[in-house]
């Protein structure tokens, strides 16, 4: 299993970012995938999951209505569209499969 996140950066409050996670080493189309994040000085927090059928998604209350998880089977890539970003969304974001995470991508929301 290999997961490589990208797309993070510095954005102002209210802005948007789209994170990507390139997946390899397993059958992506049949895998349940998640995004988790870790804010400075805090533990891992689950953000969102997508089930293998790609039509069932779940979100934490803190991001519901602002973030959208999706996947492109042809590209073996998982996405997280993040809108209306808040300072409390600042964290390292990881994609995850069965407890395995990539190296993460830093998202900083600040004016």
User: What's the total number of strands?
Assistant: 11
Beta-strand share of residues: over 45%
Computed CA radius of gyration, to the nearest angstrom: 13 Å
Structural class determined from secondary elements: mainly beta
Tell me, what's the shape?
globular
Question: The biggest beta sheet, please?
Answer: 7 strands, mixed
Instruction: State the helical fraction.
Output: under 10%
Count of DSSP-assigned helices: 0
Calculate the terminal CA-CA distance, rounded to whole Å.
Answer: 37 Å
Question: Would you mind describing this structure in some detail?
Answer:
With 111 residues, this protein is an all-beta fold. 0% of the residues lie in helices and 52% in strands. It contains no helices and eleven strands. It has strands at residues 2-6, 9-11, 17-24, 33-38, 44-50, 57-59, 67-72, 77-82, 91-97, 100-101, 105-109. Strands 2, 4, 5, 6, 9, 10 and 11 form a seven-stranded mixed β-sheet that branches. A four-stranded antiparallel β-sheet has the order 1-3-8-7, with no helix packed on it. β5 and β6 form a beta hairpin. The model has no long low-confidence stretch (mean pLDDT 96).
State the main characteristics:
111 residues, mainly beta, 7-stranded mixed sheet, 52% strand
């Amino acid at each position: 299993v290999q997961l490589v996140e990208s797309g993070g950066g510095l954005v102002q409050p209210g802005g948007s970012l789209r994170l990507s996670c390139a997946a390899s080493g397993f059958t992506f189309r049949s895998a349940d995938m998640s995004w988790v994040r870790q804010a400075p000085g805090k533990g891992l927090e689950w953000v969102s999951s997508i089930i293998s059928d790609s039509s069932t998604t779940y979100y934490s209350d803190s991001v519901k209505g602002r973030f959208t998880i999706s996947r492109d089977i042809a590209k073996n890539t998982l996405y997280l569209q993040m809108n209306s970003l808040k300072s409390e969304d600042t964290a390292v974001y990881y994609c995850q499969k069965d407890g395995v995470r990539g190296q993460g991508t830093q998202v900083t929301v600040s004016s």
